[in-house]
Design a protein that fits this description.
By secondary structure, this protein is α+β, with helices and mostly antiparallel strands. It is built from 6 helices and 25 strands. A hairpin with a 3-residue loop joins strand 20 and strand 21. The longest helix has 12 residues. The radius of gyration is 25 Å and the shape is elongated.
């Protein structure tokens, strides 16, 4: 079998697949990629990859194809050769015995070992009767980018906290994630979905973060009890779901407050960045029309930063004195698309809440000794 293709074309196709490769958890066959040439699709080559949690499929159009069949080779090897190719086109040639693949780049050539395509882990598919829905890709990507980063990475901890809860109800879409110290809920109330559609599943964090990097145009989503699929333009992805129950965040996020503050996002972040050079632990207070942030590093000094409040609602004239982790606050404020930040405060031992038009975040204070 012979495939001749423009270098930029195959390189672009591989860029959609390689983000899903995980060296740390890879088995022998999950380090391979499958190139498939089907007689029903002239000049089209499918690329398939499966890392046990997510499976992806994309395709590219070749300039020339001779023969049909499948080629299973090491992903990192083939990707490396293609990324470094210097010619305008490359030729992939499978020898007659099917033992070696030669990648020709001008006069240069690389020889790759071949694995049995029968051992390749084919992507799982959903039953034909599975119903799906379509969501605007830009809106879905915005939700992912504002929420998914909060979920835990550690697979040994509470497994459900390594995922992001997707909830669809009454035509609205919500994503929620927590790492115990932070809880973030993002929502899209104009998703244009059928109001009879309901869904509540936990999606692996990495599935969504990797999906976000390649989203363009609308996304077709279908769900079963164990799997979720994402169908984009020239890209298909299937992922396992995380079993279990997610925290009932509607009962955790405080709805009342004693003090409500508003400040410019850029100014608040600038204050936090200065204070972090001393310590991530910070005291937050109010002094007239300013939010005051303090940080200290024993033997090295301290810093006091003043952030001008654009709005202050404190009807009971409550005193604000709370210790926070500045890095947590910065992560939530920095990921906001709003120019101003609204913070709700109840007491030194109750969660602080950050309000936005399309997201609500909560983080825990630190008990002052």
């Amino acid at each position: 079998m012979k495939i001749k293709v423009k270098t930029d074309v195959i390189r672009s196709a591989f860029q959609k697949v390689t983000p899903f490769f995980e060296e740390s958890r890879a088995t022998l066959m999950s380090k391979t990629v499958l190139l498939n040439v089907d007689i029903s699709k002239p000049k089209t080559v499918q690329i398939l990859y499966n890392n046990l949690v997510q499976g992806v499929q994309t395709e590219f159009v070749a300039d020339e194809i001779e023969g049909v069949g499948k080629i299973c080779v090491g992903l990192e090897m083939l990707k490396g050769v293609i990324e470094k190719a210097r010619s305008n086109d490359v030729t992939i040639l499978l020898d007659e015995k099917g033992n070696t693949v030669t990648v020709m780049d001008g006069r240069s050539n690389s020889h790759l070992g071949v694995f049995s395509s029968d051992d390749f882990m084919i992507l799982q598919t959903l039953p034909k009767e599975t119903k799906g829905f379509t969501i605007d890709g830009k809106k879905f990507k915005n939700l992912i980018d504002k929420v998914a980063f909060v979920a835990l990475d550690d697979m040994e901890s509470n497994f459900t906290l390594t995922g992001v809860l997707l909830t669809i109800k009454d035509g609205n879409v919500e994503l929620a994630a927590t790492d115990r110290d932070r809880l973030v809920v993002g929502f899209c109330k104009d998703a244009g979905l059928d109001k009879s559609l309901e869904c509540k599943v936990i999606i692996p964090k990495n599935t969504l973060l990797r999906l976000s990097k390649i989203i363009s145009g609308d996304v077709r989503i279908a769900v079963t009890d164990q799997l979720i699929t994402f169908d984009l333009d020239n890209f298909y992805m299937v992922s396992r779901l995380i079993p279990g129950s997610f925290v009932n965040y509607s009962e955790i996020i405080p709805k009342e407050y004693n003090i409500k503050l508003k400040a410019a996002k850029s100014e608040l972040i600038a204050c936090i960045e200065v204070l972090k050079t001393f310590n991530n632990l910070m005291i937050m207070e109010i002094d007239k029309d300013d939010l005051v942030l303090k940080s200290r590093q024993v033997s090295y000094g301290h810093s006091i930063q003043y952030c001008k409040l654009t709005e202050q609602d404190n009807p009971k004239k409550e005193k604000l004195e709370v210790m926070i982790n500045g890095a947590l606050l910065e992560s939530l404020v920095g990921s906001s698309s709003n120019l101003e930040v609204t913070i709700r405060y109840i007491s030194p031992i109750k969660p602080l809440v950050i309000e936005e038009s399309d997201r609500i975040s909560m983080f825990m204070p630190i008990k002052i000794q």
